[in-house]
Structures are given as structure tokens and as C-alpha cells.
Amino acid sequence: MATTSDIRNGLCIRYNNDIYKIIEFLHVKPGKGPAFVRTKLKSVTNGKVVDNTFPSGRKLDDVRVETHKFQYLYNDGEFYHFMNEQDYSQIRLLEAALDTPELMKEGEVVTIIINSEDSMPLSVEMPASVILEITHTEPGVKGNTATNATKPATVETGATINVPLFINEGDKIKIDTAKKAYQERIKE
């Protein structure tokens, strides 16, 4: 059993007959009244995100998990297929278990969280950032670096990301997977 003081991003808990992963939390100590923890929980079974507030000191039923490195192989429309880097066994997951599947390219190494009790995969953690190539965007104009204006660009995985005006087709960019946002252009 864990308490609200053990809450951290990525902690898996059993709540309302489902397993949730904490994706955001905030400890709040108001001037008047007891302290509490405001959380954003994501269901690992259906991907639904709910907001919840726990009173400070409340006991939580945490789920014991293991993390393993897996390589993304391919997507067959319904399932995403992964291979364990240690024993080369393969698993397949529904899209709901993935946070940002549109940013995964074949060969990407991800961390899969697995329930220790029944060996069921719970969720997939992407790397903090990925490097992808721009496949389609309007041509950039030299000198468009002074403003914060952006334009849509399609990357090699098919996702659309807003990028600065100076980015061209063929450029490689670094994308923050948590925010699905442009970070920087990669020069080779």
C-alpha cells in the first residue's frame, strides 16, 4: 500500500476497479483546510484520462510493475507489434496503450511497463524526444527566424507537427514526445 506522499509521475495504482497510471500530480496545501493531491490519471486498459483529487494521507493500492526495453516492429492497423530486446519474444498492443503512437517509427526502442502479478503489458513509455524527418511542408524562407510564427509539417511517421517557418522538407527535427512539440532542428 502506498500513500499520497508516494505519488509520482508513472506510478500505477488500482482505482475504481481499473489500473491507472499517474501522468500529472500537484500537492496542494491551502491556507485553510486540509492538504490534498490533485492528479490526472490515465487508464491503462482504455486510455481514458480522468482528473481526481485525493485527500492527503489517503492509502492507495499500488500495482507492482516491471519495465523492459522493447523495439517497435510494425503496425498492422489494429495492433502495434514489439520485440523484447533481451529474449526476442514478441508482444502486440492496442493503440490505446500507447501515448503517442503517431511519433513511433520502426526500430524505435521504447520502455513497456508490465504488471508483475499477471505479466500483462500496461503501457508504453516513449523516449523523451525523437528525431524525425520532414516529408511535407511549405517551403521555408531564409530570415524567418526572428518571429515565433509556425506552420504545419508532416513527418515521416505521418504525424503533423507545428514547426518554425524556416524548416524545409528533408530537414530532421527533434520532437518532444510528451508535448508533441518541435524542439530543434538537427544539423548533420
Automatic annotation (TrEMBL):
Pfam families in UniProt: EFP, EFP_N, Elong-fact-P_C
GO molecular function, one term: translation elongation factor activity
UniProt-listed GO biological process terms: peptide biosynthetic process
Gene Ontology terms: cellular component: cytosol
Pathway field: Protein biosynthesis; polypeptide chain elongation
Xref: SUPFAM superfamilies: Nucleic acid-binding proteins, Translation proteins SH3-like domain
CDD domains linked to this entry: S1_EF-P_repeat_2
Subcellular location: Cytoplasm
Keywords noted in UniProt: Cytoplasm, Elongation factor, Protein biosynthesis
Elongation factor P C-terminal domain ranges (all copies): 130-185
The UniProt record lists the keyword Protein biosynthesis: yes
Boundaries of every Translation elongation factor P/YeiP central domain copy: 67-122
Major place of residence: cytoplasm
Keyword Disulfide bond appears in the UniProt entry: no
Family: Belongs to the elongation factor P family.
Protein purpose: Involved in peptide bond synthesis. Stimulates efficient translation and peptide-bond synthesis on native or reconstituted 70S ribosomes in vitro. Probably functions indirectly by altering the affinity of the ribosome for aminoacyl-tRNA, thus increasing their reactivity as acceptors for peptidyl transferase.
Protein name: Elongation factor P
Species per Swiss-Prot/TrEMBL record: Polaribacter porphyrae
Name of the gene this protein is made from: efp
